[in-house]
Amino acid sequence: MIAVLALLLLAQTQKGPAPAAPRSFAQISKQADQAREQEHLEDAIRLYRAGVRLRPDWAEGWWYLGTIFYDEDRYAEGQTALRRFTALDSKVAQAWALLGLCEFETKAYDEALAHLKRARTMGLGGRAQLDTVTQYHAALLLTRSEQYEEALQILLGFAVRGEETAAVVEAAGIAALRRPLLPNDVPGTDRELVLQVGHAVMDTGARRPRDAAEKFESLLAVYPKTPNLHYLYGSFLLLSDPDAGLRELNKELEISPRSAPALLQIALEYLKRGDAAAAIPYARRAADIEKQSFVAHNALGRALVDSGDLENGIRELERSKELAPGSPQTRVALASAYAKAGRHEDAARERAEFLKLKKLGDKPSDQ
Fold first, then answer.
1. Which residue, 259, 233, 256, is CA-closest to 244?
2. Which of 40, 168, 275, 317 could bridge 301 with an S-S bond, Cβ 3.0-4.6 Å?
3. What is the CATH number of domain 125-257?
4. What's the rounded Cα separation, in Å, for the pair 357 and 328?
């Protein structure tokens, strides 16, 4: 046995000494960067990991680990590394975007939506490809969390820019039909409907009204009782033929009496016409159904104020402000209501806040 062990030891020594492992942080970081630049990614990962073990606050090491893992589709590991990076440096929008995308792939959807929103708010100027991927995935997650209007706002932006990919069209169809699903969760039997609706919605965003109208009419001929289709067509028609739009919205209510979006659209149309009395019942039903909708409480508050019910109107507008303090429309409506009620200091405060919010909203975006 001793002889065998001796032979084994001799064989190992004849292979030559193992290369010396870098001992200092400076050596490790330099070799890690070299490995990454030469695309020796496994070596780079090993070295960056060694570096962050020596210095857990080495933000650059966590950043390169995160980006390598993301590029290699190793999302769980990327998620861990990017969380460490953002804890050390919270001012890099690209990091929040990549973290959100990793979390999307690991099905940490709530965290992903929060981090993608943060990246969008900070702005990804100069990184067009990452911005596109971030916007798309944010729209998917907004739809999943039933924030359909915000999702559609993002997706219609793709149509305006002429970026109507098949994936975007499908996402728009899901959001427009108000289904809290990701694309992979859409039943096969509904996929054709989703795509047709998506194309109609993209036509509206790209300002192709004739094509959009033809698609909506074709859809309703085949799916006359499908929820949300009359709402979509009615909302589209309000821009060119408001009376026809109201008829379609009322058809939606025949199919879905608790359709808060249809109720709200009708209320807003009557407010636009200066008919507050007609708007009140629709706005009230919408606010009762969607108690957390600041838009519904805003519409009801405005309708009540315009009809002379200042006390209840102000109460609804204050509720709208509680739900969305950053809404300039609510602030200016409150300012007007307070002025009518003789509450001039409150009116001045809300007017100043409106101007501040409007100025922020008018700033050019770097996205």
1. 233
2. 317
3. 1.25.40
4. 6
pLDDT tens figures, 95-150:
999 999 999 999 999 999 999 999 999 999 878 899 999 999 999 999 999 999 99
Q: What is the pLDDT of residues 50-63, one digit of tens each?
A: 999 999 999 999 99
pTM of the model: 0.86
CATH superfamily of 27-107: Tetratricopeptide repeat domain (1.25.40.10)
Interaxial angle between packed helices 260-272 and 229-237, expressed in degrees from 0 to 180 and rounded to the nearest 10: 20
Q: How far apart are CA 176 and CA 174, in angstroms?
A: 6
* Chain center to CA of 37: 34
CA distance 135 to 140: 9
- Alpha-carbon span 230 to 339, nearest angstrom: 39
State whether residue 137 is helix, strand or coil.
Answer: helix
Q: Where in the chain is the domain with CATH 1.25.40.10?
A: 27-107, 277-361
